[in-house]
Amino acid sequence: MSRTTQGTPAVPGPASPPGGPAAAAGPEEARAAFRAGSTAPTSGWAPGCTQVNIISVPRDWAYDVLLFCQRNPRPCPVLDVTDPGETSTVLAPGADLRTDLPAYRVWEDGELVEEPEEVTGRWRNDLVTFLIGCSFTFEWALAGAGVPLRHLEQERNVPMYVTDRPCRPAGQMHGPMVVSMRPVPEELVGTAARITGRMPAVHGAPVHSGDPSRIGIADLGSPDFGDAVDARPGDVPVFWACGVTPQAAVMASRPPFAITHAPGRMFITDVRDERYLVP
Amino acid sequence: MSRTTQGTPAVPGPASPPGGPAAAAGPEEARAAFRAGSTAPTSGWAPGCTQVNIISVPRDWAYDVLLFCQRNPRPCPVLDVTDPGETSTVLAPGADLRTDLPAYRVWEDGELVEEPEEVTGRWRNDLVTFLIGCSFTFEWALAGAGVPLRHLEQERNVPMYVTDRPCRPAGQMHGPMVVSMRPVPEELVGTAARITGRMPAVHGAPVHSGDPSRIGIADLGSPDFGDAVDARPGDVPVFWACGVTPQAAVMASRPPFAITHAPGRMFITDVRDERYLVP
Predict the structure, then answer these.
(1) Within a 13 Å sphere around the CA of B190, how many CA atoms are in the beta-carbon half?
(2) Rounded Cα–Cα distance for residues B119 and B122 (Å)
(3) Which of A62, A194, A200 is facing B63, going by the closest CB pair?
(4) How many CB atoms lie within 10 A of CB B186?
(5) Contact criterion met (CB < 8 Å) for B81 and A67
(6) What angle do CA B236, B241, B246 make, to 5 degrees?
(7) What is the spatial distance between Cα B228 and Cα B41, in angstroms, rounded to a whole number?
């Protein structure tokens, strides 16, 4: 797998929305800003509204993708699937999936060929779009419980790593699990696991904490997606299954065509994060 | 929809396993008894092991069934999907899905044509089998919290009803939501909702409690599947989404061929019920 197609997206940007909190008030305003050309990472935008990973594949690959997600629910929790060619979703009626993300990735035969701001010109009437839960959704719950979020403190995209853990394959779809990492003070690791464990629709409890080499990560300083984040003394690296996993599977499985979000540039839905909390 | 194809299965039997608790000790022993010819309902067998609904459809219907389940997770929580023609599942390695249930239903063009004890002769190499969560899984948790289970007290199959609530359709698959009903003492309805809400993989919290006519049920005494159950004074009818919903969709959507379990005659897996409890 070529590292050159995996790095931080070519569209840089700050972690917080321009114009301050007022500009980030609602999901419609956020999507309008991205439709108008902003390529900023979506972390911090429309707080309280669920952000999702996006992957669109031709209809004849949709069963394998859906089954891959069903068989790997920790990295790939499916929140909605569109009908072929559909450009909207029940999670955000009125939004346009082709224009309302900050940045996209276009894939041909598993190779990243383009990273455009919108994909209207690349759209196909046979594309089925999968909306997949994102760990951003549980960050409000972590913050509320006093678990510090180092990547937000440092105004960076969360770091993501390809592991050596294979996903359970489905038809033509196969690939390794991708994880996001957050440094957590050792005494709060249990709290973080308990809180996120109550949100199985957005990756649930961590899949690993501690030594990164145990899951095939050689260097925390060189994430495969996103930005490296500095740990503080006493922090332990905690790893959650990540919704970029389908992108890694696209790279490995080489469908003839696919469109995904650019890492960290998510689709912002109208759904409140609380909906995915098991009470 | 013809009532004559929906009633209590033709294979009657007691709610408890023959031979007492020892005979019900493990899932392998239970499956062996059904393979050997027992047609008893599975409630009370292999306590602590997860029982699942089964639906097998030809490969060219599998995407619509999987998407139907994804779009209707309350009635249709998918716990596993086999590859085409496969006769076993990761949830019970070594079991045979064609023989290890007490009774099956065979459907042609949406019509019930047969209710055999095994389906080896009806098997096809293009069949994809869906294993769908069952409310039996949360009954141990209800009992543990002091919520009485009237159908078990009365040694009956749980009653199930077709509602007037349509599921969200998916391709060719459409149909109404089916619910199971348990009479619950009024002061315990909140407890029952809280406990089952923590088990979203096995239908989660109730979809309704109280007046049955609000969800299109005319007469609690005439269930569409299973047995009528007597309420005690002070009981409130509480309704949970039910894994028989895909059978109702098969009746409505008329795939050319399908095999399902007979209501109340589930497939017993090796998985412990606790696995589906969100901590």
Answers:
(1) 1
(2) 5
(3) A62
(4) 11
(5) yes
(6) 145
(7) 15
ipTM of the complex in this document: 0.83
Do residues B62 and A63 touch, judged by C-beta distance below 8 A?
Answer: yes
Structure tokens that stand for B198 in this block? 């923590």
B61 to each of A86, B50, B73, B83, B205, how far by Cα in Å? 21, 26, 18, 13, 29
Q: Strand locations in A82-175, DSSP E?
A: 104-108, 111-114, 127-133, 160-166
CA dihedral B153, B157, B163, B165 (to 10 degrees): 90
Supply B215's token pair. 């969800």
Q: How far apart are CA B263 and CA B135, in angstroms?
A: 12
Q: How far is B79 from chain A (nearest CA, A)?
A: 8
Q: Is the pLDDT of residue A13 over 60?
A: no
Q: Is the pLDDT of residue A1 over 80?
A: no
Local structure of A245: helix, strand or coil: helix
**Domains defined for chain B, CATH in brackets:** 15-136+252-273 (3.40.1640.10), 137-241 (3.30.2040.10)
Is B174 in the A-facing interface, judged by CB distances under 8 Å? no
Q: How confident is the model at residue A231 (pLDDT cuts 50, 70, 90)?
A: very high
Contact in structure between B23 and B33 (CB atoms under 8 Å): yes
pLDDT in tens, B46-59: 988 999 999 999 99
Residue A81 with chain B: CB contacts under 8 Å: 67, 70-71
Is the model more confident about B10 or about A127?
A: A127
Instruction: Give residue for tokens 């890492």.
Output: A263
Which chain B residues contact residue A63 at CB under 8 A?
Answer: 62-63, 66
> Closest approach of chain B CAs to the CA of A118, in angstroms?
27
A9-23, B181-195, B260-274: which range is least confident on average?
Answer: A9-23
Q: Is B81 on the interface with A (CB under 8 A)?
A: yes
- Residue A115: helix, strand or coil by DSSP? coil
What is the identity of the amino acid at B265?
A: R
Helix (H, G, I), strand (E, B) or coil at B79: strand
B35 touches chain A (CB under 8 A): no
- B162-182 per-position pLDDT tens digit: 999 999 999 999 999 999 999
Distance, in Å, from the CA atom of A163 to the CA atom of A226, rounded to the nearest integer, reads: 15
pLDDT tens, B58-74? 999 999 999 999 999 99
For A97-139, how does the pLDDT look when each residue is reduced to its tens digit (9 = 90+)? 999 999 999 999 999 999 999 999 999 999 999 999 998 889 9
Amino acid B203 reads H
Alpha-carbon distance of A5 to A8, in angstroms, equals 9
